[in-house]
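Margin note: ligand = adenosine-5'-triphosphate.
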Amino acid sequence: MNSLIRIFAIMKKEFLQLSRDRLTFGMIVGIPLIQLMMFGYAINTDVRNLSAAYVDEADTHLSRQFVADLGASQVINIKQRVASVQELEQLLDVGLISIGIAVPDDFDRRVIERDRQAVQLLVDGTDPIILGVAQQLSALPVRFDTQALPSPSVNLMEVRNFYNPERRTAVNIVPGLVGVILTMTMVLFTAVAIVREKERGNLELLINTPIKTPELMLGKIVPYIIIGLLQVVIIFTVGCYLFKVFIRGSELDVLTVSLVFIAANLSLGLLISTLVQTQFQAMQAAFFVLLPSILLSGFMFPFDGMPVFAQTIAEVLPLTHFNRLIRGIVLRGADIDSMWEDLLALGVFMLVAITLAIARFSKRLD
Amino acid sequence: MVCRCRQILNNMKAANDIVISATGLSRRFGSLVAVNNVDLQIPAGTIYGFLGPNGSGKSTTIRMLCGLLTPSAGSATVMGLDTRKQSEVLKQKIGYMTQRFSLFEDLTVAENLRFISEVYALSRKRRKTRVAQLIEEFNLSKQLKQRAGTLSGGQKQRLALAVAILHDPQILFLDEPTSAVDPKNRRDFWEILFDLAAQGTTILVSTHYMDEAARCHSLAILDQGVKVADGSPMQLGESISLNVFEVVAEDPNKARISLAQQQAISSITQLGVSLRVLIPKDVEGGLQLVTSTLAHAGVHAEVEKVFPDLEDVFVAVTESRPEGIAA
Ligand SMILES: Nc1ncnc2c1ncn2[C@@H]1O[C@H](COP(=O)(O)OP(=O)(O)OP(=O)(O)O)[C@@H](O)[C@H]1O
Ligand SMILES: [Mg+2]
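Resulting structure:
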């Protein structure tokens, strides 16, 4: 009973302080929105409208058809036709185009006999994304609508795109971003919440009261859990309206895994607060956690493509497990039960972190 | 009336009980010895002062007695509880006003009081009445909705004391509680302390001010972590091995220069037109020495032997330690 009174007292105090701290309050709503806009609109890995030019030395019905098809794909935006390959190279050199298409004069013969490459793509290879696009283009089939010829399929492989047929980055980014934003804000908020009291001298008063360490920690965590869940709701609402990313699985599952993930991050924040002395150090420590989380968790790069060493580190990070869970639920409509290992990993992380934080937090000044 | 009598009786009965006791209490920070082998015996219901210059270890000692710092050596018991092992039980019974304002500056006065009353888990009814009572007693009703950070120095100190006694502690540790308070408010503040002591609260207060130290029932003078003297202000005055002479001179500067030639004089302090001259007791004919020196220099002055005040004691024990203290 007394414990409850004390926990509620701390919670109420945290809410009051939060409501008066405009900067933090702005960050709670602002960070999700800004990040969502940034990743959703600006950082767009589905490339469209790369500027291109072409030279068509064949100038046959088939070659014209081919160039028109490329243009219609919308991946490239054909700006001009030039007379020679040299001109294409010049345009590439000065950076006016990213891709040059060279159709040789014996294009028709090459397509039919298939003994040599029919078309040359000149690419600015310094940008791996453009290089990827070129590879994608090279797999594009050449259509033969000439009656006289049968319709052999020129490309040998077909890619079938599951879950995201329109290849929109947002579909992958939005659920991934939930985890990144929560890692960023939750770790930082709790770490700072305690260190700030250390710096302002409030802690010397608090530790001289009969409040117990777990009561203090719980009272600090609960308000931020609510704030974290609020952020999750904001992100998915905006994601739904602006980027048409819908939750295929159950909303309750989303909230459940978010809850465990938030608690894990808050516990980590508390642990950090017991290790550092100043708010600045707390911030540095939070970014020290954030960076590997972003890079290794599968948010930026596919997990399976990473070296084993990096994968091992990634398995320790809560964001890795959360990404699997949330992508599973949101994109594939998966059930929590099928991913219990990741949920368990988050739970274990949280318990370890909070236990260490409570053990390390001392009601003494020495 | 009946109640008042019982209180006084209780106080008399408790007067012999030692509630704060320390033996060989020491604390080092790296190579620095902040508190060195301090012994304390403080009876219930007294106002006990810690007088000492900056860095003399007042705050460190108070923190050890609260159980906030672990002693490097020695031990302390407060209300019979060991400050090392039983600090959690102790916290319910003591109040501590930190030297630095430690309430939440972004909460209002009312919110701060309510928060602390909840942290001490007082009953709902008690919370209400106690907070209302303290607001009234400490004259804070006009500032209720004001953020604590925007209070004036004196208001902050009143709020901090109100918070420290909110749960009716039997022992109160006040670390320089009046450092930012004007003389009038300081007197009011001390009125409250005397009231609390009359009700049986034991108060340990640290200070730089001599006038405050003089109000304490008993005090300890700390210097560089060592307790160099203790006792009541009267006892302390008697204990020093120096005689104090007050010299009121027409030309105090000239008087000071002439007296400074005398090797036997251990200290001269100028207070406006008067000088306080300290001469060791074992120097024969101190009064004679002063008057003749002044006459020789042609300075007209009245010289009088006076009872040492705390400032004299302070100068005596901190400047010429350990010779300055009577054995
Ligand atoms: N946490 C600490 N780490 C290192 N040194 C400390 C620490 N706390 C206190 N000290 C040192 O111990 C000595 C005593 O400090 P303390 O704060 O007890 O002095 P004080 O008598 O309260 O002084 P003031 O009147 O200035 O408040 C000082 O030299 C101080 O620098
Ligand atoms: Mg101090």
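Chain A has two domains: 50-162, 168-365.
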